[in-house]
Specification:
By secondary structure, this protein is mainly alpha-helical. The chain has two domains: 5-29 and 50-122, no CATH class; 130-198, Arc Repressor Mutant, subunit A (Orthogonal Bundle), CATH 1.10.10. The chain has eight helices and three strands. It has a three-stranded antiparallel beta sheet with strand order 1-3-2. A hairpin with a 5-residue loop joins strand 2 and strand 3. Helix 1 (5-26) packs antiparallel against helix 3 and helix 1 packs across helix 5. The protein is globular, with a radius of gyration of 21 Å. The two termini are 36 Å apart.
Amino acid sequence: MQLNEQEARQLIRTSIALHQELEHKKHSPPPQKEKIGHTPPHPGPRTPGGRLTDISIDLATNLAELIRDLAHRVTPGRELPAEAIPLLRWLQFNLQAAMQQDFIQDVLDEIEQQRKQLTGLLQPAEPATQSAKTFNTATAVLQVLQMHGHLKTREDLRNWANRGYISRVKDRQGRSLYCAAEAIQHIEHQRCTAKHLID
């Protein structure tokens, strides 16, 4: 599977969402039916999450083996935890440099395999379709961003769309339309990532 940078970003975003769903389900076991008048005489220890916890550990271990090796080349000295979401977020942030490494496709192949496995396991709800999102002209989106305290430019929107951070569609006149909610989410993610790196 050969992916370009934009396709890789989309794959990573999807994988992060799936791992977040896995974490949620892992820590939220389904309620057990109450059996009136019956109490197990010697209840044994119970592992939180059960099978999902085992799957989560296996997936994170596989990711850590590949992405840590990548991190040693791209950001020498940076130690990453053996946890799927931080590993994927590191890759998302450093993807441009990571795409230059000769074994990046092996990493992306592993992420794609995990995406398929998690999709089948969790059967998450279908993501919102493009038509369900609200798209506006660059001018309108920039005004919304300004109202939220973000001073950005048309070039920023174009760059984010080109890199796959936000969606872009064309209207009947051929004008580029963007989703303000995605732009705000991307800006907030950038802030969180920058704060994490500083800390």
